Amino acid sequence: MLGGFNPRLKGLAREGDRPSAAAWREICRLASREVRGPNVRSDETGWDILPAATVAASFLVKITGHSEADSPAQNRWKYSWTKQKDVKSAAGYGAGWDDDTLEGTNNAYNTMEDGNSNAGMQMNGVDIDGAGFPSGYSLQPIPDDAIVRLWPVYCKDGTLEYWFEAPNGIDGTCT
Asked: pTM here?
């Protein structure tokens, strides 16, 4: 029953079997509030919340480098990054991205690489062991200077990580 799990939703009208527009607005407002961390506790809904340090919303960064995340290699990389200013200095493609003062001290990770391995289907949808995959080609890291949206993510142990989402390209030389 809507309104029973959170005191802030009590009394909001229902429209038949659905929450009212006012209830949906309140649900969206509650869902979009800032995530807090690193001390995990349970609020009145029973959901884990992270109340201590405020984590900012996502922000744009420029990828500045990468290194292998695994040994042996699993088609996953750790990325260095520099935050970009909130306002571009020029409109359109190819111009206006300016470095901010924040240079990432933590590596960033790509959600599209999380399930990758050194064989079979990769998270970009390509089977690197498939009959049609050309010899001499391989999955590539996200290139330097790519602009991506980065999200801070707290782990339950309080560790802060940064994650983005971008599909990996494929490159190589025919053999």
From this structure: 0.67
